Every structure is written in structure tokens, then in C-alpha cells.
């Protein structure tokens, strides 16, 4: 389970992104599931709320419980990355940047403006691209771009220099982040990680045609979803 949080020193940050990365499944290649942060779920011990609130209420353990109870996914390990850590790991692993074909021009509320088209992004720019949601698509477009970023990172592993740097970058990420991932897990799944250079299978949750807009108890806009349909979609996706 990968959690990107918006922490800038505070303890009760919400999860900016929540993903499940499968490395050791039947396909022997990376599979990525992204959860829309406005998905309205039942949070154990805290009631109904947006899924990203589970991190503020109980950290990674509660996010893991929430995903398990609502979607039937039992994640073995977790890693949380804040903005600063993400930048450092990207710049350590890919000193020449990451190849990304930016979808559009972006500048609103960003630290650095981004122009449409193919380019190499450093850690800061890649983070801005992954977080941008100040357009008509909102979180839908942002989740798609976050998946694009993860796929691009895996694709960069085709470079032998990046592969050589991987153990060092992984160790640096472990040191900067809260996690319970053993290095033995990464070593065991190194083949699957390398296969990710040729593509990462992706799924967004709630799945297409399984959700509708609604309102929470406090009037906030949320995504209401068909639990059974989404659990089935996830099972089908991971089983391929």
C-alpha cells in the first residue's frame, strides 16, 4: 500500500493519494490500483467519511483496515511518502529526470509551471504534475496522472544506470518514510519490478459505471459506490 500524504510537519495530515501496488501476483508484473480520495467509505471506529480521512484518523494501519473492509484487499506492507521524500527519491534515482508526456499546460497553484508535451521532469516538477487538479476533471484527472507517473517511473528502470541505483534509492526511501516493507520483499520481487519497465496495469476505484455523486453528512460532495461491483472488479483485475 502506497500513501502519499500532504504533511508539512503536522501529525494529522490527510492522505493525498492512496494506491495498492501488487508485485507478486499471477501476472508477475506490477499492477496498480488507485483510490479516488472522495470515495465515501465506512472507516472502522470512525463512521462514514471520505477514504483519505482514514489516514488522519489512524494512520496507515487504519487506511489498511478501511481498504480491507470496503474492498476486500489485504495489503501485506505499506509505505508513506510526503512531498519532500518523493522529490528526494526521484532525484536520487533519476538524476537526468523522468520522461513524461504532459497532458496539458498547467500552472494554477503549482510551484513550477508545466507545458504540454514530452519532457523530462525532476522530482519537484513530477510531484507538481501528479498533484495538479485545478481543472474540470478534478480528482479524476489527477488520479490518471498519478498512475501515468508511476508507470513512467517503472519505465525508467530500462536504463541500466537506474537499475544500479535502485538499491540505494530504495534504502533512502525506507529511511525517509514510515513503512514496514522488508528489503527482502523488494529483492524477491526484483523480476516483477523489472517487468514493469514494459508497462504497469492500472485500475481506478471506484471502477467505471459503479459509482454516483452524493453528499456526506456535512454536505461535502462524495463518490458513492457499489461495493460488490468494485470488489469484483478488483478481484478480476488482480487475478489476470
TrEMBL record:
One of its GO terms (cellular component) is plasma membrane. Residues 14-158 form the Cell envelope-related transcriptional attenuator domain. It holds the Pfam family LytR_cpsA_psr. PANTHER family: POLYISOPRENYL-TEICHOIC ACID--PEPTIDOGLYCAN TEICHOIC ACID TRANSFERASE TAGU, REGULATORY PROTEIN MSRR. It comes from the Bacteria. This is Regulatory protein MsrR. Keywords: Cell membrane, Membrane, Signal-anchor, Transcription, Transcription regulation, Transmembrane, Transmembrane helix. Gene3D superfamilies: LCP protein. Involved in SarA attenuation. Affects resistance to oxacillin and teicoplanin, as well as the synthesis of virulence factors. InterPro entries: LytR/CpsA/Psr_CW_biosynth, LytR_CpsA_psr. It is a single-pass type II membrane protein. Belongs to the LytR/CpsA/Psr (LCP) family. It is found in: Cell membrane.
Amino acid at each position: 500500500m502506497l500513501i502519499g500524504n500532504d504533511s508539512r510537519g503536522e501529525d494529522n495530515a490527510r492522505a493525498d493519494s492512496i494506491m495498492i501496488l501488487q508485485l507478486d501476483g499471477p501476472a508477475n508484473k506490477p499492477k496498480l490500483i488507485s483510490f479516488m480520495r472522495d470515495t465515501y467509505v465506512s472507516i472502522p471506529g470512525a463512521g462514514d467519511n471520505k477514504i483519505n480521512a482514514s489516514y488522519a484518523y489512524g494512520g496507515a494501519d487504519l487506511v489498511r483496515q478501511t481498504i480491507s473492509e470496503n474492498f476486500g484487499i489485504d495489503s501485506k506492507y505499506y509505505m508513506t511518502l510526503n512531498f519532500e521524500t518523493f522529490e528526494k527519491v526521484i532525484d536520487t534515482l533519476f538524476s537526468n529526470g523522468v520522461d513524461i508526456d504532459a497532458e496539458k499546460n498547467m500552472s494554477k497553484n503549482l510551484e513550477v509551471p508545466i507545458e504540454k508535451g514530452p519532457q523530462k521532469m525532476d522530482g519537484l516538477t513530477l510531484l507538481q504534475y501528479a498533484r495538479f487538479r485545478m481543472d474540470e476533471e478534478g480528482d479524476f484527472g489527477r488520479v490518471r496522472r498519478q498512475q501515468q507517473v508511476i508507470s513512467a517511473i517503472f519505465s525508467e528502470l530500462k536504463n541500466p544506470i537506474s537499475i544500479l541505483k535502485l538499491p540505494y534509492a530504495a534504502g533512502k526511501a525506507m529511511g525517509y518514510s514510515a513503512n514496514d516493507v522488508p528489503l527482502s520483499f523488494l529483492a524477491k520481487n526484483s523480476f516483477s519490478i523489472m517487468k514493469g519497465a514494459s508497462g504497469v496495469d492500472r485500475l481506478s476505484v471506484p471502477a467505471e459505471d459503479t459509482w454516483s455523486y452524493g453528499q456526506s453528512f456535512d454536505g461535502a460532495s462524495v463518490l458513492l459506490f457499489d461495493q460488490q461491483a468494485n470488489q469484483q472488479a478488483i478481484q478480476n483485475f488482480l487475478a489476470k
